[in-house]
Amino acid sequence: MAELLQYTITGIAVGMVYALIALGFVLIWKSSGVANLALGQIVLISSWFTYAMLVQAEFPLWLGFPITIIFALFLGWAIERFALRPLIAQPILALITVTLGIGYFIEGVVSFIWPWSVDALPRMFPREVINIGPAVISQEYVWVVGVCILVFVLLTLFFRYHKMGIAMRATADDQMAVQACGIPVTRVFSWSWMFACVVAAIGGILISSIGGITYGLVETGLKSFSVVILGGLDSFIGAIVAGPIIGLAESIGGGYLTPLVWAGVKDIIPFIIIIIVMIIKPYGLFGETRIERI
Amino acid sequence: MNLPCGTRNFTYAEDMAILRTKTHWVMFVILLILLFTLPLYLSNYWLSVANLIGITLIAAIGLNILVGYCGQLSIGHAGFIAVGAYTTAILTGRFELPFLVGLICAGVVAGTVGLIFGIPSVRVKGFYLAITTIAAQFIIIWIINHWEITGGFIGIEVPYASIAGFEFRSEASQFFLIMVIAVICIFLTKNLTRTKVGRAFIAVRDNDLAAEVMGVNVLYYKLLAFFIGCFLAGIAGALLAHWIGFMNTEQFSLTESILYIGMIIIGGLGTSLGPILGVIFIRILQQLLTAQLVPYLESTFNMMPAGFATGVTPMLFGLVIVLFLVLEPRGLAHRWALIKSAYRLWPFSY
Predict the structure, then answer these.
(1) What is the average pLDDT value for chain B, to the nearest integer?
(2) Strand partners, A131
(3) Which residues of chain B have a CB within 8 Å of the CB of A268?
(4) How many interchain CB pairs under 8 A, A with B?
(5) Which fold has domain B44-345?
(6) Among candidates A233, A227, A278, A225, which has minimal Cα distance to B119?
(7) Does A242 map to a domain?
(8) Cβ–Cβ of A274/B311 closer than 8 Å?
(9) Which one of A83, A100, A115 has the shortest CB-CB distance to B310?
(10) Reported pTM
(11) I want to staple B211 with a disulfide (CB 3.0 to 4.6 A). Which of A92, A96, B25, B216 is the partner?
């Protein structure tokens, strides 16, 4: 019982981070129709950048964290401006592969600047354990869930009340109509990339403050694709609901299946979920079913 | 435009021929002679590069059929190559079956695995399929790492290829084995894309709904493309296994899959010349970088940062892929066609 509760809470916490990263994907997909496969590498490089700020430059948290956010904003802007703007209206194949190329490039930059490839971020959250019933849980996970919920709320408010947020929702709805209304669509694209990079960076900082910075972060980005697929590519609610589901499946399934099958089954569960969803319900739980016409 | 002035057709067979003029034939024969006498001029090191190019070429041709002709994006190609490599490693290494049996089985098993992961392509396409194939890559590598029969994380040794008692031990003998298979694959796929099957692939790529309305069995042709693409990946994997002699899953990472996509994009999607140019370009660039330029720079300037050697290759390849997509989305094959027609029309290019 204690075990199950522990798995549940860690699963929900990790799943929330997946949902956060997935949100960044959905944002870009909805506004510009680009599938960002460089998500994992963006998570990786922003975690390393945080490391550079907090450990190498020894900035305090209140200074290092905003600089990381600014870096993520800049990263998103640069990717959109230099790689994706020239490719507007190209086939989806080109759009997907260009993000693969960007991811590969970022991976090279990371191993160029930080060649030792494994390190730990300083602890940001208090480490004392707390007892919930019979379970003993590290306090960090509760903090992670809190931060994720805070970001979700902030994003919701932004999309509801801010002018740019409304423009982004409108672009997602109908690009042509938005253009006709005089909203600069390219600026919306570049904002959605900036936002996506920021939420990916926050997700990366959260997950690497628990598990350390490794190349596994790229895989974390890839795992958040299972969230996107399960929730539906074009649904914010889908991402928020599916994130904890994937997290729970990973931690509970990993916890109970590992003695039964081979070790490391935890890392493969999200990918198996992808295949199952693809065969049964390819547009996900909340995704819009595409009806194509010739 | 593509033919020299004054070339006329008198029969249908003449119109359909790949090599149209006497000059074509002469050039083609010279090319073949040059190719198969390469072991005479190349050092052992460059011969091994040529072998790697040949093996990569077979896999890239398969990927080109799948992505370039049929339009089904697959980012798990290294996973399917791994299936082929391990199949032949187990069959010839553990059960001591002959090489040719291992080769064919490698292709068939990889093709079948490709079919299984290709099933979602019936209902989804584009990004969804890309994610499915990434998932396939991870699942395949995980299974290989944990199944006892494959040697797991430690790896597995593979014997030399042998046909009728002759062992392909030296780099030169393996060169002939690999190149003969590569040339056969190029010939077969070139012809495949000109038949009914190839036209169906192209119809599915351009608009699968329209293709279905016109009477193309979309399900059948999508799965057939997956089978052929992964079959060739399996063949390439088997040759790779016998060539290296030692298999480990680290040789089949996701970055390798991305590199394969990069190769066919740089070469030019959906052309028969594209994969050849792309593979040669990427593999030679890779060799020049990792084996020549980086050691040279590191020995000349001792102020190099520590991550230079590992970082510069992915950085440059990522940059090359992005630049090609932005600046020359139709690839080197298109550039080559432009050069050819400019040469043909010179000096009156209008």
Answers:
(1) 87
(2) A136
(3) 138-139, 142
(4) 157
(5) ABC transporter involved in vitamin B12 uptake, BtuC (1.10.3470)
(6) A278
(7) yes
(8) no
(9) A115
(10) 0.90
(11) B216
